[in-house]
Predict the structure.
Amino acid sequence: MAIPIRFLTLALVILSVLLLSSSLGGVTAKETKRSEAEVQRMYERWLVENRKNYNALGEKERRFNIFKDNLKLIEAHNSVPERTYELGLTRFADLTDDEFRAIHLRGKMVRTSDPVIGDRYLYKEGDVLPDEVDWREKGAVVPVKDQGDCGGCWAFAAVGAVEGLNKIKTGELVSLSEQELLDCDRGGNSGNFGCLGGNAADAFEFIIENSGIVTDKVYPYTENDTAACKAIEMVTTRYVTIDSYEDAPHNDEMSLKKAVAHQPISVMVEAENMKLYKSGVFTGPCDHWYGNHNVVVVGYGTTERGEDYWIIRNSWGANWGESGYIKLQRNFHNSTGNCGVAIRPVYPLKSNSAFGLLSPSMFKLGALIIFQLIGWALF
């Protein structure tokens, strides 16, 4: 007797469900198959690699439980096919989301003055922009730095943008001092508060009013803001100046692209879920209307699979992400850009002059030497 078609269809559906359940069961097994001893070994290895040492009683065990939770999240994410990015056991794998946010995400949207929105990088129909830009390849980006447990991302984002611009304008890449900003650009009229957070725009304002910023060799990073602002009075002190700063058009990824084609740009992103980022094009999840972390966009490009991305230099050390960088999804469907990258980009401005590299005292010394030489020649 012939079997009715509806019974054959039902049988095929049941078979498909069984096969799918078996497949999902395999994924679940992959996520949970690690024994406690294996996870413990991973944890001990991670502690050594990240130079972690807990002194408080029971702290190592408490951190191990957080580590296990983060490992489960990582494996669940990475087990899904066709992900555009991969998670991993970064240096933050022993932190809860609340701890990570409180320590490492201190960017502030509030400024002490209203932003000046420039039109030099306003994208207009017909503008021809490069398909790819990478300021690292042009020697305009210093090696990735590490803010440590200080919430001074704003200082690193400001300094990174100034370092890049100075290279473009003078031909010289000079590593500058975040610590000078942390110690000296706080209180009073500044909207910056050392390790408690701040924004790059107010940092640019300080650099202008202070007639420049010194190198990090002169004023090295200490990972805290407990010291008073140091007076720098050294004849050979090198510093870099900027003339002004302004915002790129807000909520406009094409204008941000145009800006990045000309120089590295400081932006703010919502970075809570970047804690465990390892590689690939980050697509979220994240808030698109709010930022809590300052970074520098140093380029953009497209993967072989056609995924557009921003190249973002972070300040969490070279052992996070792609050697300290993250690729963030570009050409997002929201005007703010993914994770709010295009909400309020800001950048410094500088004339084509190399005369911002030596201190005023150095120029005075040079002038005295020249006058002395002229005197000797005349007499």
About this structure: Residues 133-349 form a domain with the Cathepsin B; Chain A fold (CATH 3.90.70.10).
